[in-house]
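Input.
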Amino acid sequence: MARRAGVLRRAGRYLLLGLAASCALALLLVLALRWLNPPTSAFMIGARLEALLRGTHDYHTRYQWVDLEDIAPQAALAVIAAEDQQFPFHAGFDFKSIREAVRHNAHSRRVRGASTISQQVAKNLFLWSGRSYLRKGLEAGFTLLIEWCWPKERILEVYLNIAEFGRGVYGVQAAAQTFFHRDARRLRRAEAALLAAVLPNPRHYHVEAPSPGVLARREWISQQMADLGGTAYLELIENQGARHE
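Output.
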């Protein structure tokens, strides 16, 4: 009995050490990526592995990092208007949107999400797709680390660079070149809104052949961009970044 208790204590000790080491590694990784631009993401790697397993030979990843100042302000505003209008104000989680999504999903077959831009960065950069308590727990942990370690401008910059806009198309630079044959810095308002319109499900919605629903969402996003006050809204994020330094 005493021997069994000793084994359990050692196992518990090793488990705690393993958890502590994992947390420390996650913290160091998030801290490093405050200054280092990620060469890839978990979602890019997952899509590539999925293509290999399916024997898909025509799949390739289009991804080119560009700094935030080389991205049209309209593109930054469009993703905020579409995905997370409270982005400058929350600390990683929009609890009002979460409550509204819970109430909606309780009475509808069409599931509504409430993930913030920070949560999407955590998921796309470090984790995998799917719905499980483990993944959501890890997502919450990485979201907190990102919000603690990065200024809002960095979170937005990373999001714009790793978001998926189509099959194998990651980041606003690759999307702008693929769909509009221009650099991200030259994106127009309507083009930025159209890119943001496919973000809920870029493997179902298509920039190059937008459905009536996507076009309607583009118009809604354009109106939201205007309602937020235009690109002047981005000054709120710049101010948050100045306070973070």
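The longest strand covers residues 164-166.
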